Amino acid sequence: MKTVTLSTLQAYKQAGETFSCLTAYDASFAHAASQAGIDVLLVGDSLGMVLQGHNSTLPVTIDDILYHTRCAARGKGHSLLMVDLPFMSNATTERLLEDAAAVMRAGAELVKLEGEAWMADGIRELTRRGVPVCAHLGLTPQTVHQLGGYKVQGRDAAQAERIINDAKILVEAGASVILLECVPASLGKAVTEALDVPVIGIGAGPDTDGQILVMHDVLGVTHGRTPRFVKNFMVDADSIQSAFQRYHEAVKTRAFPAQEHCF
Ligand code: KIV
């Protein structure tokens, strides 16, 4: 399989083709996902919830992220490895640069960070130094307490307008990719059409350029309430590898997400 780079994602967007993304936190699952054709792997700070059992991503440290990045990097195969910066990595520019440098040294090929338009300066500093950035907008789990829970964002016109403007500002600052979480499908479409860079969606409807899910959700091993945008691909699959393949194919053919997964 051909190595996936940022240019590959850009080419997908230009060709109107979707691409698949999945979280992976270790070498074995990264290898299985890559072999299944998944384009982008994310060492997400969701590891705090699905691996460590916390009820939010806030306890995750940069050392946790670095450990799992090194593990996933050894199995990533042809896939592009995106890595999350944890809560408070953006506390100061110095810390942002140091944490980003550490994850790049550990094997990241794209750094993801949460934040609105105010993150533009940080993104400018990173991209100026050769660190490619994916900016995560919409439902940003690191601000869950401020948001009052894991709620759909951008439901009203003013909020939607703000998310579109923030995305444009962050792309202008240098973000190469935007990730949109839990927004109405109409907003997912509007942001995707407004930007030249690839947009990855999770609970953002069928029209974003790429789709991402948490691996544990794809395998049906998440406990507690299942969000609407999740699909368990283990149903009817006879192996983890085949569940990953089914997810990849469903994204590529736009069979996933279906109406029932959208807001
Ligand atoms: O941490 C994570 O896994 C994420 C995805 C939910 C997009 O940010």
TrEMBL record:
Record's GO cellular component terms: cytoplasm
Gene responsible for this protein: panB
Catalytic activity: (6R)-5,10-methylene-5,6,7,8-tetrahydrofolate + 3-methyl-2-oxobutanoate + H2O = 2-dehydropantoate + (6S)-5,6,7,8-tetrahydrofolate
Alphabetical list of InterPro entries matching this protein: Pantoate_hydroxy_MeTrfase, Pyrv/PenolPyrv_kinase-like_dom, Pyrv_kinase-like_dom_sf
E.C. designation(s): 2.1.2.11
Note on cofactor: Binds 1 Mg(2+) ion per subunit.
NCBIfam families cross-referenced by the UniProt entry: panB, PRK00311.1
Pfam families xref list: Pantoate_transf (PF02548)
Similarity section: Belongs to the PanB family.
Residues binding Mg(2+): 45, 84, 114
Protein name, per record: 3-methyl-2-oxobutanoate hydroxymethyltransferase
GO molecular function, one term: magnesium ion binding
Biological function: Catalyzes the reversible reaction in which hydroxymethyl group from 5,10-methylenetetrahydrofolate is transferred onto alpha-ketoisovalerate to form ketopantoate.
Pathway: Cofactor biosynthesis; (R)-pantothenate biosynthesis; (R)-pantoate from 3-methyl-2-oxobutanoate: step 1/2
Subunit structure: Homodecamer; pentamer of dimers.
Keywords: Cytoplasm, Magnesium, Metal-binding, Methyltransferase, Pantothenate biosynthesis, Transferase
Source species of the chain: Halovibrio variabilis
Top-rank EC class of the record's enzyme: transferase
Compartments where located: Cytoplasm
Binding site for 3-methyl-2-oxobutanoate: 45-46, 84, 112
Cofactor(s), names only, from the UniProt record: Mg(2+)
Catalytic-site annotation from UniProt: 181
GO term, biological process aspect, one: pantothenate biosynthetic process
Entry coiled-coil feature ranges: none
